[in-house]
Specification:
single chain; 297 residues; alpha/beta; BirA Bifunctional Protein, domain 2; eight-stranded mixed β-sheet; three-stranded mixed β-sheet; 12 helices; 11 strands; 38% helix; disordered N terminus
Length: 297
């Protein structure tokens, strides 16, 4: 791979359409590698702002960059259920990726209208999700953030949560009827913003909690109930509202159109470049596919 070519690349013309890429079903380690490969290619001026949708083969448990996998994940259960495992380059907690819309947005920090502050960046980049939910017939809201209980310190709040992402509220949360319906995480590196996230179409909470470590079965059941009360999948919310369901493909199309509407730009469907594919393969070999990356923390 000749990275010296980047020196001769012209800056991307931001008046051009954004790129829409659907990479289909790939392993968890490859999915994380592709997200980073797009960031690198964009930093080098090779590709425009990109909206990517992707699926998982097999279904995969991902953990946040700082999460202690050995302490919080039951790897025997991961193996029994034939579930993949990968550590994300972003923060947050454990997510089971299977029957869901998974998206990533890769855009320069200098893109017009994108706030420099991470929290405000979430608000702007997540507006496409609001439009997508509206197209599905759900009135999602963007909340202002997690509220501490009376006398609760931030440290105590973190310790009181389970290892599951959908039990971990964050600023500018997307909710339906007060229940979390999407989980997103963001990182910024070399002037590029990556935001990726999970929008469950069908409920996977029971399997997720079989993959997490708990002191005993009572604790597992208690935390599973907490998450089931706090979070909701698209089809659960739709059944409660009007008795209908949508397919994964219908949900993906709603959010694709939603992002285009929110950003006010056309999304040009394109594949990954050969450079991105090659770089992703290299990142699997050297980073995301290694034990050092996935289990060392």
């Amino acid at each position: 791979m000749n990275q010296d070519k980047a020196q001769n690349q012209q800056p991307v013309d931001m008046s051009n359409p954004w790129r829409f890429v659907h990479t289909g079903r790939r392993s968890g380690v490859m999915n994380m590698a592709v997200d980073e490969a797009i960031m690198i290619a964009q930093h080098e001026g090779r590709v425009p702002p990109t909206v990517r949708f992707y699926n998982w083969l097999p279904g995969t448990l991902s953990v946040g960059y700082f999460q202690k996998a050995a302490k919080e994940i039951d790897f025997d259960a991961v193996g029994r259920h034939n579930v993949g495992f990968v550590r994300r380059p972003t923060g947050g907690r454990a997510v089971l990726h299977d029957r869901e819309v998974t998206y990533s947005l890769v855009v320069p920090e200098t893109y017009p209208g994108l706030p420099k502050h991470v929290d405000e960046g979430y608000r702007v980049l997540s507006e496409g999700l609001l439009y997508g939910f509206q197209r599905l017939g759900l009135e999602a809201e963007m909340t202002g953030g997690y509220q501490l209980a009376a006398g609760e310190t931030p440290q105590a709040a973190r310790l009181s949560r389970s290892a599951a992402c959908f039990d971990s509220p964050s600023r500018y949360e997307l909710t339906v009827e007060g229940r979390k319906i999407a989980g997103s995480a963001q990182m910024r590196s070399r002037g590029i913003v990556l935001q990726h996230g999970s929008i469950p179409v069908d409920n996977q909470t029971e399997l997720l909690f079989e993959l997490l470590q708990f002191a005993d079965s009572r604790s597992r059941q208690r935390w599973q109930k907490v998450v089931e009360e706090k979070a909701v999948a698209i089809n659960d919310a739709l059944r409660l509202k009007n008795g209908r369901e949508v397919s994964l493909e219908e949900a993906e199309e709603a959010f694709r159109v939603g992002f285009a509407e929110a950003f006010g730009v056309p999304l040009a469907a394109e594949p990954l470049t050969a450079y991105e594919e090659e770089l992703a393969e290299e990142l699997v070999r050297t980073k995301y596919g290694t034990e050092e990356w996935n289990r060392s923390r």
